[in-house]
Amino acid sequence: MIKVYQTIVDKNHGNCMQAAIATLFSRKLEEVPNFIELDSWFSALCKTAIDNGYDYEGMLHNKNYTRLWHPTDECFKKGRWHRPSIMTKKALYKHEGVNGLFYAAVLSPNNFNWGEGIMATHAVIIDRDYNVVFDPNHQYDNILEYPLKSLLGYNGIINVDIINPIK
User: Fold this and answer.
1) At 67, is the secondary structure helix, strand, or coil?
2) Which tens digit of pLDDT belongs to each residue from 32-42?
3) Cα–Cα distances in Å, from 10 out to 1, 87, 136?
4) Buried-exposed string 17-48: b where 16+ CB fall within 10 A, e elsewhere
5) Which residues are CB-neighbours of 61 under 8 A, at least 6 positions away?
C-alpha cells in the first residue's frame, strides 16, 4: 500500500475519496478521478476498480448508523434487513478485497455536528477487522477515534465498499 494523502481538505468538496482509492490501488493521486467533482462518481469508481483488475460487488452497511438516521422506523414494525449487506464481525472475511484492504466511510471528525444535523462522511482504508489502517487526511494521523464510535461500533465505520479481484 502506497499512502496517498488528500490535497483538498474542504467540507463537502475534499478529495479524500480520490486519495483513499489511489492508496487502495497503489496509484498516484492524479491517476484516479476526483470523484467529488463528477456527476456519476459511482460509475467512475466501478471503472477505476475494473481498470485495476477488480470488480465492485456492493456495500456493507452499519445497522446502527441506519437506525440513528431513522430512529422511529422500528417503533411500530419490525425492521427487515438484507443480511448479506449488513456489517458483521466476520463479513469482510468472505471477501478478498484489495490485498485484504477495503474502502470505507466514517463520519468526518472536522465536519460532524449532531446538533446541526451535519453528518458529513470521510473516506478511509480498513482491514478485515474494521481497523482503520490509513486515513488520507494528514490532520487525522494521530486520531483516537471517529465520531459516534461508541454508538456505531466497528470503529465508527458506517459502510464498506466491497471491491474484489476479477475472477
Assistant:
1) helix
2) 999 999 989 99
3) 25, 29, 13
4) bbbbbbbbbebebeebbbbeeeeeeeebbeeb
5) 85, 86, 87, 158, 159
Residue 154 — left, alpha, or beta (φ > 0 → left; ψ -120 to 50 → alpha)?
A: left
Q: What is the predicted pLDDT for the residue at 32?
A: 97
Are 164 and 55 spatial neighbours (Cβ–Cβ below 8 Å)? yes
Map residue 165 onto helix, strand or coil.
Answer: strand
**In 10 A of CB 104, how many CB atoms?**
28
Tens of pLDDT, residue by residue over 64-74, are: 998 887 777 77
Of 145, 152, 98, give the one whose Cα is nearest residue 126: 98
Nearest Cα to 134, choosing from 4, 18, 33? 4
Q: Residue 22: which pLDDT band, with cuts at 50, 70 and 90?
A: very high
**Cβ-contact 121, 106 below 8 angstroms:** yes
Contact 92, 160 (CB under 8 A): yes
Rg (C-alpha) for the chain, rounded Å, is: 16
